[in-house]
Amino acid sequence: MLKERIDIETIDGQLFEIKVIEPDDSKPASFTHYLQNHKNGVSQFYKKDALAFVKEILEKEYPKEEITNKVAENALQYLIFDFKKSVPFPAPEKPKFKFIDLFAGIGGFRLAFQNLEGKCVFTSEWDKYSKQTYKANFGEIPFGDITKPETKNYIPDNFDVLCAGFPCQAFSIAGRRGGFEDTRGTLFFDVAEIIKNKQPKAIFLENVKGLRNHDKGKTLTTILNVLREDLNYYVPEPQILNAKEFGVPQNRERIFIVGFRKDLGITDFQYPEPTNENAVLDDILEQEEVSVKYYLSTTYVQTLKNHRARHESKGNGFGYEIIPNDGTANAVVCGGMGRERNLVLDDRLTNFVPVTHITGKVNREGIRKMTPREWARLQGFPDNFKIIVSDAQAYKQFGNSVAVPAIQATAEKIIEKLNFK
Question: Which is nearest to 405 in space by CA: 285, 281, 247, 284?
Answer without folding.
Answer: 247
